[in-house]
Amino acid sequence: MYDVIIIGSGAGGATIAYRLADSGKKILVIERGDYVPVEKENWDSVEVFQKNRYTTTDLWLDKHDKPFRPGMHYNVGGNTKFYGAALFRLREEDFKEIQHYGGVSPAWPIQYEDLKGYYLEAEKLFHVHGKRGSDPTEPYDSEPYPNPPIPHEPRIQEVVDELNNYGWHPFELPIGVNFKPHETANAPYTLDRFDGFPDAAERKGDAHLCSLSKALEYPNVELMVNTKVLRLNTNEDGTKITEIVVEQNGETKTLTSDLIILSAGAINSAALLLESKNEKFPNGLANSSDQVGRNYMFHQNTALVALYAEPNYTKFGKTFGVNDFYHANKDYEFPLGHIQMLGKSDEHQIKADSPVAAPGFTFELMAEHAVDFWLTSEDLPDPENRVTVENGQIKISYSSNNQKGHELLKAELIKALKASGKFESFLFKGIYFSKGMDIASPAHQNGTTKMGLEPKTSVVDTNCKAHDLDNLYIVDGGFFVSSGAVNPALTIIAMALRVGDHLKSSVLKS
User: Could you tell me which of 335, 319, 350 has the C-alpha nearest to residue 434?
Assistant: First the structure.
C-alpha cells in the first residue's frame, strides 16, 4: 500500500516525484522500461537512428490500420533522455484564443501568470542556458536565465550574423545542459552527440538526472522498473481508483495507493484510461466527456538540412532560434511558427533521411557542409485526431491541419538563407533536403486529456485532477488545450511543480 503511485518517469512523472519527495508520504514511481544503458552505442548514429536501438519494438496502427513502429522510448527519464533539451515557455498569447490559417487555437482555462513562477523554477531545475530578452516573443521576466547562453560556434555565428543582416532577430536558444561534473558520469563530455542521442556523459538536462535522481535520495520514494501498467480498477461506485494491475518480468501484480498520478505521456496515458473501461466507465476511465484520446497534437514539424557553401565543422549547432513569424505580423495575417537549430547531422543521418545524394556531393561531403534547422508550427486541436485502442493495440488516427502556415514558414527560411549567398554560391541554386515528421515521431505529443472547467467538455481540471475520479491526476502533455509552436517539455515540467504544490497543500495533508 502506497500513499502515492506515479505512473511514468518522464518530464511530468519524474518532476512531480521530485516535488512530492519531501512530503514524507510513501511514493512509488512505476517505469515501463529500465535505465538507458551507458555504452558506446549511445553516441553511434547508425545504432540510434538507423537501427533504432533504444526505441520500442511495439507496433501501433495509423488511421488506415497500417502498422508502424513509433519513435517511443520506454526508459527511466522517458523521452527526455533523447530530446534536444530546448526548454521554452509558452508565450503569454498561447494561453489565449488565436486565429490561424487552419482554424482557431482555443483559450486555456489558466493564463501564463499561473505558470510564470514555476517556469522559472523549472529552468533552474533543468539547468537552462539562455539570454533573457533576446527572443522578442518571450514573456518578460526580471530574473535572468539560470545559466548564460551556450556560445555560437564560428560557422553558426556567421549564419546568425547573416540572418541579422537580412532583418531577422535570431536569439539564443534556451537549452538544458549541466556543464558541472556529475558524480555518476563515467564518460567524457561532448556536445556533438546530443540532439536525439542518450547522453552517456549525463550532462543533458533530462528528467532522470534533474528530477528523479533527486527524488530517489529520499527513503520514502521508490522506483519500480521494467513494469508495465496493464489497467486501472475502480471501486464499485466508480469514484476512485482502487487497484493498479501491472506486469513485471512476466508476473502480474496488483498495487494499491491512495493517490494515482498518471504521467505515461499523452498517448500512453490516454490508451491506459481507454483500456481500463468498466461498467461505470464503458468508454474508458475518466471519460464521461468522451474526450480521452481526442485532440491529439504533436506540431507540424520539419527538419531542414541546408548545404552551406563552406564546410561546417560545428560540434554543437543548436544555439539559436528565430521567432519573427511566431505571431501574425505586417507580412502575414496569421502566425507561421518557430525556427530553431538542430544538432549537427552526420553522413549516416543524412543518408537515412535522403534517398539520393546532392549533385556533386557524397553523403560525407553533404554532412560536412550541412547546417540543420528545425521548424515548428502549431497543430490545432481536432477531436477526430485521436488515440484509440483496438485489440490491445494503440491506434493513432491523425490528419494534418494548419499546413499553410508551416509551408510559408519553410519558404521564408529558404528565402532568407538564399539571400546570404552562402547557401547557393557553391551549389549553383542551393539544395535543401527537408523531412517532415509524421505520426511515427511523437516527440511533442500533447492534448489527449485536455484541461477545462467543464466536465462535459474536458478530462482534467486546472490542477490536472480528473473530473470523474477523486484520486486521479494526469500530469503529462495530455493536459494541453492548444499546442503553441514551441517544445512542450518545460510547460509539462512547470505544471508538474504546480500540481505538486497543490497536492502538498490541499490533498496530502497528514
Answer: 350
Surface-to-core class of residue 1, CB atoms within 10 Å of its CB (0-12 exposed, 13-18 middle, 19+ buried): exposed
Strand extents, DSSP E, 298-457: 300-307, 320-322, 338-341, 370-377, 386-390, 393-397, 432-436
Calculate the CA 213 to chain-centre distance. 20
Q: What is the dihedral of CA 408, 413, 414, 419, to 10 degrees?
A: 120
In the CATH scheme, what is the homologous superfamily, with its name and number, of domain 2-507? FAD/NAD(P)-binding domain (3.50.50.60)
C-alpha separations of 143 from 112, 180, 190, 305 in Å: 16, 22, 29, 35
User: For residue 325, what is its C-alpha cell?
Assistant: 513569424
Give the closest residue to 354 by CA, choosing from 370, 338, 341, 339.
370
Helix (H) or strand (E) holding 160: helix 154-166
Backbone angles phi, psi at 19, to 5 degrees: -70, -35
Quick one: pLDDT band at residue 361, thresholds 50, 70, 90?
Answer: confident
Task: Tell me: pLDDT of 96 over 50.
Answer: yes
CA distance 468 to 459: 8
Contact between residue 253 and residue 300 where contact means Cβ atoms under 8 Å apart: no
Whole-number Cα distances in Å, 110 to 36, 106, 175, 290, 299: 36, 12, 26, 22, 21
Which grid coordinates are listed for 191?
Answer: 556536445
Q: Give me the residues paired with residue 86 across strands.
A: 175
Contact 327, 137 (CB under 8 A): yes
Question: What separation in angstroms does the CA of 180 have from each of 4, 35, 43, 152, 183?
Answer: 33, 22, 20, 20, 9
Domain extent listing, the chain: 2-507
Q: How far is CA 90 from CA 52, 115, 410, 484, 488, in A?
A: 31, 10, 21, 7, 8
Q: Encode pLDDT of 159-215 as tens digits.
A: 999 999 999 999 999 999 998 856 666 666 667 888 889 988 888 999 999 999 999
